[in-house]
């Protein structure tokens, strides 16, 4: 049988490795902007419905058939307005971020693509489309991975990593390794540090992502920017304190159609100002964290707990 991910309830246990972050940093923080708008399921692209995930939309509860024009426009807010607001928040402060990039979305917005390409932010492929990879056949998924890389390479630059919408299929990691050219993948939520796996004889670096440190919280449980700011600040403060003994990394996920709304960007500004006021914080691109890990903790013939 082909390789599939195994359960690992142990991870690093009580004594995780020292990541030796640059300049003795106590924590590495990586902001991720998910660029999805334009690649989501839609009537026009053949799915037969309008995606309203992570918006104020409520199509399903209203029984709307066909195009949901309200839902479409809530997505369009992300690429038309939210994108530029989030870009300014980082660029005005001289801070880096990582773009989880859905390929078709950038094909449909050349101006955004050019801005990302010029920014120096790193690219992690978020799929050819913002769809559920676990619903694809193996052949379809292989095709989507190839299409995504080809497209992103021409619009924003070659992706250094891979991350599916929500979750991978049992085949994804193997197909990502088979494709080659990726420094890491982020299809995992179970740790605060990167780790190695062996996939059909080849090393694969996994850099875990987070749906807890994520503005997706606004879509179900939160309404006020102070709530989100405080959740992110608390997570940072705990990891920062632990970082005196055991440094970790923190991923913070952002969506243009959520955090890009002004009342929520306010909480992001507060968070960025707070992080910039602390000493010993490495705010880094995801590819830099991955490359640092590969250099300081190289693959040594087997992965974690293999
Ligand atoms: Zn996403």
How would you describe this protein?
- It contains nine helices and nine strands.
- By secondary structure, it is α/β, with parallel strands linked by helices.
- The strands form two sheets. Strands 1, 2, 3, 4, 5, 8 and 9 form a seven-stranded parallel beta sheet that branches.
- β3, α5 (138-155) and β4 (161-162) form a beta-alpha-beta unit.
- The longest helix is centred in the N-terminal third of the chain and has 23 residues, at 69-91.
- It starts with 26 loop residues before the first strand and ends in a 10-residue tail after the last helix.
- The structure holds zinc ion.
- The site of zinc ion (ZN) has 5 residues, from loops.
Question: Mind sketching the topology for me?
Answer:
Blueprint: E1 27-35, H1 59-62, H2 69-91, E2 98-101, H3 103-107, H4 110-119, E3 122-125, H5 138-155, E4 161-162, H6 172-179, E5 184-185, E6 195-199, E7 202-206, H7 225-242, E8 248-255, H8 262-276, E9 281-283, H9 286-296
Parallel strand pairs: 1-2, 1-8, 1-9, 2-3, 3-4, 4-5
Antiparallel strand pairs: 6-7
Helix pairs in contact: 2-8, 5-6, 7-8
Bound molecules: zinc ion.
Zinc ion is lined by residues 34, 36, 100, 126, 165.
